[in-house]
Amino acid sequence: MGTIEDSCDPSKAMSNVGRDGLGHSVLYQYQGFWVFAEALENIKDFQHNFKALDTDLILASVPKSGTVWLKALAFAIVNRTRYPTFSSSHHHPLLTISPHDLVPFVDFKHVYPDCSLLDYTKSTSHESACRLLATHVPYPSLPESIMDGSTNCKIVYLCRNPQDTFISMWHYMNTIRNNYKVTPLLIEEAFDFFCEGVSDFGPFWDHVLGYWKESLENPHKVFFLRYEDLKEEPEPQLKKLAEFLGHGFSVEEESHGAIKEIVNLCSFQHLRNLDVNKNGKIFSDNVANKDIFRKGEVGDWKNYLTPIMVERLDRLTEEKLHGSGLAFKNYIL
């Protein structure tokens, strides 16, 4: 496949030839990653017009890496004074509004027509004293105002092991493909696409490494969070997350169980069982809120991947991440 790029304008570095991949529709290569056409204009708008503020908090991830969980946790942390999370409270926004609506994606601006947060001239939202936004855009393709160090805006990156990320992405994309009446991908075909890097906002390894390296060089700027660590030790990880966001818990809050309350409020099972997340649509008429939630387990890939697939993915991961120091469960590379 050939690409046509404008070397004078990186924003135009896009392939004019679409191809099939691990996505719900045709994918196009843009600045080294793959994206579906509907999101491209939103991403360009983000790159060209977003002016970072000192108080901005950006949540980044590869699709299907626990993004909705991170959105819920960050929203609850940042807004806990306005919206207490103690058990007797029945008015928390997370009980009636999807995390995807509370923390909008800049990548999909067209699906949030009434969201003032996505008017980049606005400095605050009605929900909090900061702009809390989410993106799947790789680090090198973020707006210059985020990366150039001129502001103190912060980025939280959530990473999940490649095996579970692939399985979750495959299930999710097939659900959407089915809703759009597009032929679902067999696991073998989807696996080849993933390993080739042709997946939504992929390649996976490039995406992860971009944020990982930046977190090592600028730990005050980028907080790298592992999905598996968050599952295994939710309270210690949540405490670290809150401190990084500038909303650390006081001794009094900890003694009154505030961390545990947020963990419980935002747990996968609790969120999945809420009416708002079992009904209604998100992003478009073809994506239901319930489609966002599946299992949320660590190690579910063992139920799907063959030994040959596991060997191929492990070998590829070792090759891509060798020497980086990045650790997933079962190996350190």
Automatic annotation (TrEMBL):
Domain of life according to the entry: Eukaryota
Residue span, Sulfotransferase domain: 54-325
Assigned keywords, A-Z: Transferase
Pfam families from the UniProt entry: Sulfotransfer_1
UniProt keyword Transferase present: yes
InterPro entries to which the protein is assigned, alphabetical: P-loop_NTPase, Sulfotransferase_dom
GO molecular function: sulfotransferase activity
Keyword Transferase (UniProt): yes
EC number(s) reported in the record: 2.8.2.-
UniProt family annotation: Belongs to the sulfotransferase 1 family.
Stated name of the protein: Sulfotransferase
The organism of origin for this protein: Papaver nudicaule
Source taxonomy: Eukaryota, Viridiplantae, Streptophyta, Embryophyta, Tracheophyta
